[in-house]
Every structure is written in C-alpha cells, then in structure tokens.
Design a protein that fits this description.
With 292 residues, the protein is of the alpha+beta class. It has two domains: 3-160, Regulatory protein AraC (Jelly Rolls, Sandwich); 171-274, Orthogonal Bundle (Arc Repressor Mutant, subunit A), CATH 1.10.10.60. Helix content is 46%, strand content 18%. It contains eleven helices and ten strands. The chain has helices at 82-87, 93-101, 114-130, 135-159, 171-182, 192-198, 203-214, 218-236, 241-247, 253-264, 268-274, and strands at residues 3-4, 10-17, 26-27, 30-37, 40-44, 47-51, 56-59, 65-69, 73-80, 285-291. The strands form three sheets. Strands 7-4-9-2-10 form a five-stranded mixed β-sheet. A hairpin with a 2-residue loop joins strand 5 and strand 6 (47-51). Helix 2 packs across helix 4, helix 3 (114-130) packs antiparallel against helix 4 and helix 6 packs across helix 7 (203-214). The chain starts with a strand and ends with a strand. It comes from Sphingobacterium tabacisoli. InterPro entries: AraC-bd, Homeodomain-like_sf, HTH-like, HTH_AraC, RmlC-like_jellyroll. Residues 174-274 form the HTH araC/xylS-type domain.
C-alpha cells in the first residue's frame, strides 16, 4: 500500500478539490481534515461514512483512508508529526495521548459537542485567514490556532465511549470510567472495594455490572488504560523508568517491568528501544494553497 511521508513537524494548508488526490494511503504522520464546504463519503479502515460541512476527521499513521467527493469540496488540512506533540508542553497530556492513539475506532467526526463545533469552525476560519499573514507573524499565530484545535478535539474524543463500551451504557458507567481515568496514577483509589464504595455498589455487583457494560473486567480495563499511558510516556517523554514507576504508583522498576512485560511481552527499556528515532530536522511550518 502506498505510504505518504513528511519530515516537517507541522503543515497547514487549504485545499479545494473535486476528487481526492491521494486514495487508499497510509501516512507516517497525523492528519486532521476539516470540511469547510461540500459533501461526500469518508472511508477509514474499511468503515465508510457520509461527511458534510463542519466534520473533523482524525487520521493516524496506522489508518488507511480516502475521500469520495460529491462535487467540489473545501478542506483545511493539519498535518503534524510525533515530534510536534512531543516537543510541546501540554498541560493535558493524557488527553493529547488519547487523541493520538485511541481514536482510530472512530469512523466519524471527532467533534461531538455542539458548542465545540462552533468553536472549531471559528478556529478553522481563522486558520484559513492566517495563511495570508506575513511569514514573520504567521508561524506563531498558526501554531496557537492548531494547538487550540488539538485540545478541543482531544476533549471530544475523551468523552466518546471506549470501543468496547456498550452503546447503551448508562451515565453511571461513564462516571466510573471518568473516575478510573482521573485516578489512574493512584493505585489505592483503584481498588475494587474503593470504587464500589464511591458509587454505592457492592464489589461483586460492580464487577458484573462493569463486564456487562464493557465486555471486559474492571481490572482488565484499568490495566489496559495504564499500559496505554505508560506506552505514551515511553514514546513522548524522556522520563526514566523509575520516574514512570513513581508516577503510576509502582513500588520500583522491577514491579513496573513485571506489569508491563506481562501485558506487552517486553520490558520498558526494550519497548523504548524499538521505537523509531525521529530524524533531527528543523521545525518547519509549511503553508500552501492548492486548488482543483
């Protein structure tokens, strides 16, 4: 399958086209595509959905996607690398991690909140206008707008039910998930008895209720969520193993390595060594306009 590459940390451009210029492709970067005008169908990982004005799609490096356009369409496209995310000091780092790695099961627009739809629309319109700024001012302005869009997208992805959650899951289940995510670094608050007491349930009922709502045990969910965050730290931070162990409440490096190896089959050090090294390129912002 053809693969598109970029060595830039951030690219932002406006596109007006009648046909998708790249079909059935995979990227080595992340891409946000916002629909300014037009309609058609969007296919990602064998899922096909209709799109319209205001939709925002996220494509990750592991996704295979293309657009089937019904007439002329206008898009704002934001491409960003892992390095761009790693180098920016996010205050809500876990939300950004969720945005990057745990949204590929979403086949539709990542914006689900109506108020955020209006905000993203205003930001995208401003981003379009910002491409006309003089270069000396343009880069900082564009980066601020892009970062605001990323945070809003992350916020919306965070409130979408995880892949295995029953579509009919009730509000209490979502509250339990929020509690687990909030306290994932505090093992003493993630004990079954503690969670059950917090939500006025018996430990036995909590276990059966959670499995019924999510098709996995509460212990499995906690472990898999913690593994995802640890993987993120290994990929996007320079923290040492003992620092990651401290952050997530493990007694020492040996304890976290046993936990990680049980789930991933390798130690944290070997996992980090397997990650591809980002080439030392200058941070570049490319702004271009193309038309069909």
């Amino acid at each position: 399958m053809p693969r598109e590459n970029t060595h830039r940390t951030l690219e932002v451009y406006y596109e007006k086209v009648a046909t998708c210029p790249l079909r059935d492709r995979q990227y080595n970067f992340f891409e946000l595509v916002y629909v300014l005008s037009g309609r058609g169908y969007y296919a990602i990982n064998d899922n096909r959905v209709a799109f319209s004005v205001g939709d925002l799609f996220l494509i990750t490096p592991k996704d295979c996607h293309d657009f089937d356009l019904k007439g002329i369409c206008e898009f704002m496209v934001i491409r960003f690398s892992e390095r761009y995310i790693r180098e920016y000091q996010w205050n809500s780092m876990d939300h950004i991690e969720c945005l990057l790695y745990h949204a590929s099961h979403l086949s539709g627009s990542v914006i689900v909140n109506t108020e955020d739809e209006h905000m993203v629309n205003a930001l995208m319109q401003n981003l379009h206008q910002a491409t006309a700024y003089e270069p000396i001012y343009r880069e900082d302005l564009v980066r601020h707008l892009v970062n605001a869009i990323l945070v809003i997208a992350a916020k919306n992805i965070a409130i979408i039910k995880p892949k295995g959650i029953n579509p009919q899951a009730d509000i209490r289940m979502l509250q339990i998930l929020d509690y687990i995510q909030e306290h994932i670094r505090q093992p003493n608050l993630l004990k079954i008895a503690t969670i059950a007491e917090k939500f006025g349930l018996s430990p036995t009922y909590l276990g059966s209720y959670f499995r019924r709502q999510s098709n996995e045990s509460i212990q499995q969910y906690i472990s898999s969520y913690k593994i995802r965050l640890i993987e993120y730290r290994l990929r996007f931070s320079d923290r040492r193993i003992h620092e990651i162990a401290d952050e997530f409440g493990f007694a020492d490096e040996s304890h976290i390595n046993k936990f990680f190896k049980r789930h991933q089959g390798v130690s944290l050090k070997k996992y980090r060594n397997r990650l591809s090294v980002v080439p030392p390129v200058e941070a570049v912002l490319s702004l271009k306009t193309s038309s069909g």
